[in-house]
Amino acid sequence: MRYALIKNGKIENIIEAEGYRDSQIIAQSGGFDDAIDVSLYEVGIGDSYVNLQFYKPDGTLAQRGKAPEEEIAEMKQALADTNAMLLEFMEVTLV
Questions:
Q1: So what's the pLDDT on residue 88?
Q2: Which of 17, 39, 60, 86 is deepest in the core (most CB within 10 A)?
């Protein structure tokens, strides 16, 4: 997972770590305030972390991407909608 190393409210580095515990060990040993999971966020070095939110240098809120589970749910819904339309089309065509 990707973790942002935070110091004084700014992302100073981004690392790959096996999990939360490992990221915290790395953060503490490097003198950082915290390590935050950013796997779903479009963030970079220099972005801010304030009140549990990430901000770009221009002050805009960093966007959160979709978790794999969310993408799968959307795909399943799209497939169900497509199947329903096909069934409706087939009924109209066969009549």
A1: 85
A2: 17
Verify that 44 and 22 share a domain, yes or no: yes
Distance CA(20)–CA(40), nearest Å, equals 15
The partner residues of 44 in beta bridges, in order of sequence, read none
Integer angstrom CA distances of residue 27 from 63, 80, 90: 24, 45, 59
The domain of 39 spans 1-64
- Walking along the chain (95 residues) 10 residues at a time, the average pLDDT comes out as 97 96 96 96 96 95 84 90 87 69
If DSSP codes are grouped into helix, strand and coil, which group holds residue 38? coil
Predicted TM-score (pTM) above 0.85: no
How many Cα atoms are found within 13 Å in the side-chain-facing hemisphere of 1?
18
Write the CA distances from 9 to 4, 13, 57, 58, 77, integer angstroms: 11, 12, 12, 15, 39
40 shares its domain with 6: yes
